[in-house]
Amino acid sequence: MSIYKSNTHGHSVGWSLWHFQWCTKYRYKVFTKQKLKNICLIAILEAAKRSRIKILEMEVDRDHVHVVASLPMTMAPTQALQYLKGFSARLIFAQLPKLKSSYPKGHLWSPGKFAASIGHITLEKAKNYIEEHHAKALLPTQESSLRSEAEELPEGQPFRARRMSIKDSMATMTAAEKEQFEKEVDEAQQNVASMDEENLETAILLAQGEFKPRAHEVIGKALLIQADDAKILRFEDFETINGPDLHIWFASSLGDEDYVDLGPIKATKGNINYAVPANVDTNKYNKVLIWCVPFRVLFSYAELEEKN
């Protein structure tokens, strides 16, 4: 009976699971690079979050999107598609203003759509379909013009919002993108000011907290350290996925109402130090946020608790 208890909505019990698919208008190949796919993924996730839609599985292809979603019992699938397509298009245009030259009327998505209901018993079959679709997409294809042709094979990358991990994110990259990403991470780690053993022995630990996921997975902990006359925010055993314009904030809440910006994220993996301005009240600003500035999305956070 626990499965029914976990699917209770107000005065009703049940599932409203759907497999959606929609395409870019004119089937233009908009999302040809991993960075563009990531922007689309985040935009759809943010649209879903604001509409109380839970994304269970998602894949962005060059010219179309697959989504498996759980809807509120009071929401029709046509409403869900309207929310997902409309809000995500606005966010994508905001991040990719040059895209408007291809869509002067402001319609990124084609009016057509596909929707099929999924019983809770056959959910895995829908997921397998997306995974098999991805396997077919890995077959070699030849790049063509902006307008797609019917006989072309898609080049998609899988995205598992419910089970997403750092390993999943790395798996979506091509060999060249992965090599470049790892190179940037290594360079960033080499440039990050780290404490030597002597400083670690004399430094005072003021507060610490474990990182917790919000929009994306994360591991590691945040330490607030007093080293001589300066305070340092240190991430240890830290790892998360990359994202557009991620910043490190000290904040009084988990929103963007009251915060101190420590600057862009230096690295997404390893031990990393951030200088804390002397005028920052760390008792008031006791939350460390990984914040995606353009989408106003909280990737992850840590609440600092004083060390007794």
Summarize it:
It contains seven helices and 16 strands.
Instruction: Output the radius of gyration.
Output: 22 Å
Biggest sheet features:
9 strands, antiparallel
Q: How many domains, as an integer?
A: 2
Q: What structural class do the secondary elements suggest?
A: alpha+beta
CATH domain topology of the largest domain: Alpha-Beta Plaits
- The number of helical runs is 7
Within CATH, the superfamily of the largest domain carries the name Transposase IS200-like
Give the SSE order as H and E letters. HEEEHEEHEHEHHHEEEEEEEEE
| Termini separation | 44 Å
Query: What percent of residues are in strands?
Result: 25-35%
Amount of helix: 25-40%
What can you tell me about this protein's structure?
The chain is of the alpha+beta class and 308 residues long. The chain folds into 2 domains: 162 residues, Transposase IS200-like (Alpha-Beta Plaits), CATH 3.30.70.1290; 103 residues, Immunoglobulin-like (Sandwich), CATH 2.60.40. It contains 7 helices and 16 strands. The strands form 3 sheets. Strands 8, 9, 10, 11, 12, 13, 14, 15 and 16 form a 9-stranded antiparallel sheet that branches. It has a 5-stranded antiparallel sheet with strand order 6-3-5-4-7, with helices on both faces. A hairpin with a 4-residue loop joins strand 8 and strand 9. Helix 2 packs across helix 3. The longest helix is centred in the N-terminal third of the chain and has 19 residues. It is globular and about 65 Å long.
